[in-house]
Amino acid sequence: MDWHFVFSQALTQAIGPTMLVYALGAIGLNLQFGYTGLLNFGQAAFAAVGAYGLALAVVAFGLPFWWGIIVGLGCAVVLALLMGIPTLRLRADYLAIVTIAAAEIVRRLFRATVWSEHTGGSDGMRGFSDPFFELNPLSEDATWTFAFLSMDSGRLTVDFGLFDLQYSHRDLWVMTIGWALVAFFCIVLALLVHSPWGRVLKGIREDEEAVRSLGKNVFAYKMQALVIGGLIGAVAGFVFALSRANVQPDTFSTDFTFYFYVVLILGGAARIFGPVLGAALFWFLYTIFSQGLSQAITADLISPELINQTQVGPLVFFLLGLGMVLLLIFRPQGILGNKRELMLDVR
Amino acid sequence: MRRAVLLLSAAFAGLLLGLGVNSSATAQDAFGVHGTLENQQDEPVAGVSITVTDAAGTEVATVQSAEDGTWAVPLEAGGDYVVVLDESTLPDGLVVRNGKPELEVTISSDRTVLFPLDTQVAGGAEPGGDEPSSGGDATGETPEGDESSTGADEAENGENLAEIEDEGGATRAVSLLFSGLHFGLMIALAAVGLSMVFGTTGLTNFAHGDLVTFGAVMALLFNLTFGVPVWIAAIAAVLLGAAFGWLQDWGLWARLRRRGTGLVSMMIISIGVALLIRNVTLFFVGGERQRYNEFVGQQPWDFGWLVITPKEVVTGSIALVVCIAVGLALVYTRLGKATRAVADNPSLAESTGIDVNQVVRLVWTIGGALAAMSGVFLGISDGVKFDMGQHLLLMVFAAVVLGGLGTAFGAFVGAMLIGVFVQMSTLVVAPELKYVGALAVLIIIMLTRPQGILGRRERIG
């Protein structure tokens, strides 16, 4: 069994493009759920409208790439308003139900065959990411070696002996932009939550009535948090779509949102670096379990009769679900969080 | 030789799986006839020849259904036409269910012609085991990978009467109404439990849909693995569902309540539980849609104004009786009164001497049993799939919010309305979008009357 490969894969994934998607989505969720206490179960929908806004604008309407980004962000704002206006005045669980329903509506609309000539139905769309990768300064066939870094026709290998990290030049470009965005949003979020505005948000999370009695417009604050968190979710959608160079409706299912929650709670809600740490750890664990199990099966360490390759996925997600439940019961603050801050209640 | 013929015909007759199918209307500007050929998974069926001839017998056009299953024949003048679907061009295993590949239509405006397609599985010894994913084969474009989310819609009603034919809008509407009532009863079975759990504990249980899956899967286990008849398997599944509900409350939720875990944490935990149950199911059952070995592809009763399968009548009636029984029990028995008291005001109920935890345990048990029953019945009509409950859950949410969160009677009323609405909406929208309508209704209700039909205003604040 190839431990070197398993560890290399796990660490590659722990800072790779997919992890950045989850980190960004969870940062948005952190503002909504961690700081404001909004139970948004539809973060996948924000990512979906972001990704599809970009894809549709570029492919179906032939707009330039930057217009696609603006369309995606605009769609996220509209979605946040649509979800927020009916529910933010009600109790928290109403928002949960509406957001989960809205996410499902969005997914079904995108996979509907009625307008599949534009959206591609369940096959999704591609062909919108070229302008993004044209900006890539890294050459496709660069070859050089520097200490433990080596570039072999566009494929970077970072060799640490015990393990190595490998990225294609496309991954590297996505990661450059992705990490820059993560850093940017972490700074923005840190400034926001330490401002008077952010203190009002935390006040809403702790006691909405008390904040209202101070004369604050709770509804407006909640809506602002939902919109900003949704915009960050849409950015996560952009990175997701660009890193895969396609959009597919079924990737934006309810489970996607749930993994954002796992990431957020694992790292620690209401902490600036919680989502980033959580996403890295989530992808490290996920890859090490799934790669480790499939390697073990290939190496006949686990009998294929007990578990076959197609059962690895469900088993790993089962373990993640179990881990999530245990984490919420025994350590709801995650790794970085503060327990007293997260005694949320809706009644 | 004779033996061979027998075997062959047995294999051919096989199982008439109600892998239903349908064809749906899409609005087009052109004047003519059109439609969409789809199998049950909403996957389009491509490459099927359809010929349109006019009243005089002259061929107008022969078209093939496109990659997305659509076909259209533009016509220049109204009148009587014959639309023929060439069955030999259908992918293996698909047949036109009502045996009428030839339809006479009168064209006065643009209209849709529907061919209900059905799957005939050869060698039906192992139902489900070798079920061909006909849609996938036909289109050759469904990657195995996204199977987990493509098939989905258990509520898709394999035997969906909705799609019988669109000759005579009235017949279709009546059939849709009945299929909607049936679907509504299935939602109601699940919704009553969800609503009662919410009423007594305040928890919105996102894992309730997976109790539905649990019931269907348990019945599958008894039916296929232990080989007992479906009706015994159904009873066993309902009992196990009750036990599962009891166990969940005893092992998890009661303890969390005692620890004082916040409701928001509990909601997220319930999502974790849902993920857990779903993946255990996927692990053991696999991602394929499976069917019980009885009551598949039943011959429907045709009353002229209504076409309905006997199993739908039976499961619907049982569901109705059970719902009425639960309602009567809530109103007239001591335990029922205690349950309503707890739902109304837990602290006040406790101070009058009601054992709140006992009541909550009871609600979980009954909720689990009803959800399992709903799962078995849905499994009988549409087959069993690991994510069937997850998709039903959103309909259940729509139903309980429409009826009023926390009220058992509201849940019933809401479920019936949602069920009928979902099915009847296919008269105007494409069937694949029927759930979108229901979920949109959910959001509109939030906007206008958040307490629901039977809820009270104070609950929502």
Secondary-structure map with pairings?
The complex is a heterodimer of chains A (347) and B (461).
Chain A: H1 3-14, H2 17-35, H3 43-60, H4 65-87, H5 92-111, H6 116-119, E1 125-126, H7 130-134, E2 144-146, E3 149-152, E4 155-159, E5 164-168, H8 169-193, H9 196-206, H10 208-213, H11 218-244, E6 246-247, H12 254-267, H13 274-298, H14 309-330
Antiparallel strand pairs in A: 1-6, 2-3, 3-4, 4-5
Chain B: H1 2-13, E1 15-17, E2 21-23, E3 32-39, E4 49-54, E5 59-64, E6 70-74, E7 79-85, E8 94-96, E9 102-107, E10 111-112, E11 117-121, H2 134-139, H3 147-150, H4 169-201, H5 208-225, H6 230-259, H7 263-285, E12 301-302, E13 307-308, H8 310-332, H9 334-344, H10 346-351, H11 356-382, H12 388-403, H13 408-424, H14 434-448
Parallel strand pairs in B: 3-10
Antiparallel strand pairs in B: 1-11, 2-3, 3-6, 4-5, 4-7, 7-9, 8-11, 12-13
Helix pairs in contact in B: 4-8, 4-9, 4-11, 4-12, 4-13, 5-6, 5-7, 5-11, 5-12, 6-11, 8-9, 8-11, 9-11, 12-13, 12-14, 13-14
Give an overview of the whole structure.
The complex is a heterodimer of chains A (347) and B (461). With 347 residues, chain A is of the alpha+beta class. Chain A is 67% helix and 6% strand. Chain A has helices at residues 3-14, 17-35, 43-60, 65-87, 92-111, 116-119, 130-134, 169-193, 196-206, 208-213, 218-244, 254-267, 274-298, 309-330, and strands at 125-126, 144-146, 149-152, 155-159, 164-168, 246-247. In chain A, the strands form two sheets. A four-stranded antiparallel β-sheet of chain A has the order 2-3-4-5. In chain A, α3 (43-60) packs across α11 (218-244). Chain B is an alpha+beta fold. Chain B has two domains: 2-142, Immunoglobulin-like (Sandwich); 169-460, ABC transporter involved in vitamin B12 uptake, BtuC (Orthogonal Bundle), CATH 1.10.3470. Helix content of chain B is 52%, strand content 13%. Chain B has 14 helices and 13 strands. Chain B has helices at 2-13, 134-139, 147-150, 169-201, 208-225, 230-259, 263-285, 310-332, 334-344, 346-351, 356-382, 388-403, 408-424, 434-448; strands spanning 15-17, 21-23, 32-39, 49-54, 59-64, 70-74, 79-85, 94-96, 102-107, 111-112, 117-121, 301-302, 307-308. In chain B, the strands form four sheets. In chain B, strands 2, 3, 6 and 10 form a four-stranded mixed β-sheet that branches. A four-stranded antiparallel β-sheet of chain B has the order 5-4-7-9, with no helix packed on it. A three-stranded antiparallel β-sheet of chain B has the order 1-11-8. In chain B, β2 (21-23) and β3 form a beta hairpin. In chain B, α5 packs across α12 (388-403) and α9 packs across α11 (356-382). The longest helix of chain B is centred in the middle third of the chain and has 33 residues, at 169-201. The radius of gyration of chain B is 24 Å and the shape is elongated. The N and C termini of chain B lie far apart (76 Å). Mean pLDDT of chain B is 75; it is low at 1-30 and 120-167. The chains are: A alpha+beta (347), B alpha+beta (461). At the A-B interface, α4, α5, α12 and α14 of A face α3, α7, α12 and α14 of B.
